[in-house]
Structure formats: C-alpha cells, structure tokens
Amino acid sequence: MKYLVGETAEGSAVFAVTGENAVNLTALDPNVGSDLMGVIEAGGLSDSVAAQIVDAPKVAISSITPALPVASPSAIICVGLNYTDHIKEGGYDIPEYPALFMRSKASIMAAGQPMVRPSCSETLDYEAELMLIIGKGGRHISEADALDHVFGYTVFNDGSIREYQRKTHQWTPGKNFDNTGAIGPFVVTPDEVPEGAAGLTIESRVGAEILQNSNTANMIWDVRKIIAIVSEYTTLAAGDMIAMGTPPGVGHAKKPGPRWLKPGETVEIEIEGIGICASPIVDEKDMTV
C-alpha cells in the first residue's frame, strides 16, 4: 500500500494512492483518522476498508496538499553517519557505533512546504535520506524481529545548517532549525519495497543538477541493525520516525564549493519505489509573520 496524508477542501485525511489518483480512506471510514496513527495503531488498514478502494471515488494527487504522515511523532531519531563515502567527505573516522541525534517537531515539515534558510546563516545544506516509521513499539528488539516493527518507509531531507552544526561537538543546533527537515509525501508499506528497503536508488537534485546519487544498499547499518541499536537505549513507540543517514555528495563537501541551497531553488529528494520529496527554498528574512 502507498499512503498519502494530506489536506483537501474536505479537510485532513489519509489517502491510498493508485497511480496518479488517490482514494480518501478517512471518508470510507472515519476511524482511519486524519494521519497514519489510526492505521498504525490498528495494525494496518482493515480488510473492509481495503476492499472498497477499487470502486471508491478518486481524486487527483495533485489536488492534495501533503501533510506530515504522523502529525506528532513521539520521537524523531536520525542516523548521522551511515554511508562510508559520506563519512570520508566530512572528514570523520568510520565509527564503530552509529552517530545518533534527535530532531524536534518544530524542525520538520511536510513535503512541498518551504524549507527555510535562516536569517543567521546561509549554510543550508541538503541530505537525502530513507526514513522508516515504527508500526509496533518495543524495547530490546532483536535484529531478527526488527522488520516486524516497521509500518512503512518514506523520504526525508535532513536540511542542515552546517555553520551551526559545527559550533559544538553536539549537532543539535545545526539539525534543528525550524522548518528544515522535509518528510514525505508518500509512505509505502514494507511489501512495496525490497526487504529493509535495501537496494533502492536514492538521489537529491535541484532542477537538472544531480547533487547526490547512491543506493540504500550502501548503508553501513541497515534498518534491522538500527532498530536493534536504538531500542537498546530507548523504548520505541508506534509512529516514531528514524532517518537512516545520507550518502555522499552533500553541499559542504562539493569541490569547487561549498554548494548551499539558495532561495528560489527547489530541492528534490527521490527514493526509488517510494517517491519524490520536493521543497522550495525560502529565506527567513522574506517570510511574513
């Protein structure tokens, strides 16, 4: 199943994507809710609702304004260094344990919404990432069981203010500026992609300019391992999001460079079989309050 959470004239709803169109699942059954938490907590879409999709009224995807797949995740956990060539371009040693950090709710936004370059720095960088959404929570989850805890996969752009990321050994400031982490718009269930979402092309671009191009098979720690590692120290909850790190080609490492994102551009992150997360870049100074 491919899901899209979004807004129409009728309000917020969960949609099932069928080609270029979508079916309003919330209209078929209000228990579905206005984001994916209803489906996640129910253990998936009910058979009765799924059976109605083929003959249900459809709307064009283009008429839906994407919203966050999960409106208020209890945790947004990010893997910082998970592709060898990206680690090298950043000047880091290859770690024995993944670099992990948290993002705040204020730092994320839905695909299609503006990504904001803050007034205090021009060093806005892009990071194409696979993101997973936890379907079943737990603690001390084994690698063998880890994929049973995944509800689905989506696309993430871990927009980073590099100047502030490097002000301290902790990355929190540079990774948590308001409206810099774009998520979505589509969430696909595990049966739609290879096991663990491995072997998928992942790319970032601005127009015809290819910025990053790699494959999720190149991750050092795969989905199984990351879930097991994270659940060693915290109890994962349904709806939690985990971003799996970015491949090489980020702007700060470009030569000649750096290559920062600029207002007026639109950055696109695409993962094969999942979709495209597009974000127009705006300057905070130009935003009306």
Description:
There is one protein chain. The protein is α+β, with helices and mostly antiparallel strands and about 290 residues long. It has two domains: about 1-65, no CATH class; about 75-285, Fumarylacetoacetate hydrolase, domain 2 (Alpha-Beta Complex), CATH 3.90.850. The protein is built from seven helices and 20 strands. The strands form four sheets. A seven-stranded mixed β-sheet has the order 7-6-18-11-12-14-8, covered by helices on one side. Strands 1, 2, 3, 4, 5 and 15 form a six-stranded antiparallel β-sheet that branches. Strand 1 and strand 2 form a beta hairpin. It is globular, with a radius of gyration of 18 Å. The N and C termini lie far apart (about 40 Å).
Short description:
13% of the residues lie in helices and 33% in strands. It is an alpha+beta fold and 289 residues long.
List its salient traits.
single chain, 289 residues, alpha+beta, Fumarylacetoacetate hydrolase, domain 2, seven-stranded mixed β-sheet, six-stranded antiparallel β-sheet
